[in-house]
Design brief:
This is N-acetyltransferase domain-containing protein. With 194 residues, this protein is an alpha+beta fold. Helix content is 22%, strand content 33%. Strand 2 and strand 3 form a beta hairpin. The protein binds coenzyme A (COA).
Amino acid sequence: MSRDAVDGVATPVRFASLTDATERDLRALNAVLFPVRYGDAFYDDCRRAGGCTQLAYAMDERGSGSATTTTMTLAGAIACRLEMNAASDGAKLYIMTLGVYAGRRDGKIGSRLLTHALNVASRDAFVKEAYLHVQTNNFQAFEFYERFGFEKGEVVKNYYKRIEPPDAVILRRDLGASWTERELEGVTFDEDAA
Ligand SMILES: CC(C)(COP(=O)(O)OP(=O)(O)OC[C@H]1O[C@@H](n2cnc3c(N)ncnc32)[C@H](O)[C@@H]1OP(=O)(O)O)[C@@H](O)C(=O)NCCC(=O)NCCS
């Protein structure tokens, strides 16, 4: 269990959108957590996904009484892209990365980032489904996404270039009526976050 988490309690976080001010934090998080160096096009796509891409900042308090100061430190983020579907009659939410720094895990930050992205995407009737790639041996990821109603689809051989095994499974879920908006406990929002 991480130092932040207390049995099943959601760590208080502040959500912020991807902006000039926050992009450096997302780049640093992705560099630490993922074996791929994402270029500028990735971050442009993330911004175009609007509120689906979201950064979660932990609020760390120091001192006591009137001398208390609060520092906001990035704890995790979800990075999404919106894609047109094959028939051009709807869009798909592609989850590119979802990551929480190791010391901040198990405080429901990842779950709330994913919930928020699905909430936001489902408000737009044009967005019909959400999907992502997961490495075929990432059983924890299957369990995690199953809780949100994702189902396994096809295997994409040699999807990953530098990791073993190189194959990915597509996980997807409908975003029509089957997704009911969920509340986010312990989240405050920056003005530009929704
Ligand atoms: C996946 C991840 C974002 C979850 O963040 P989190 O804030 O700890 O998530 P929550 O507290 O909401 O949920 C914790 C659950 O995530 C699961 N989990 C742990 N590692 C995971 C992983 N690599 N992939 C997916 N789920 C994972 C745990 O099993 C835990 O389940 P539990 O509640 O039954 O114990 C975080 O573990 C992470 O950043 N992992 C490394 C990056 C990664 O693999 N991301 C891609 C996943 S597709």
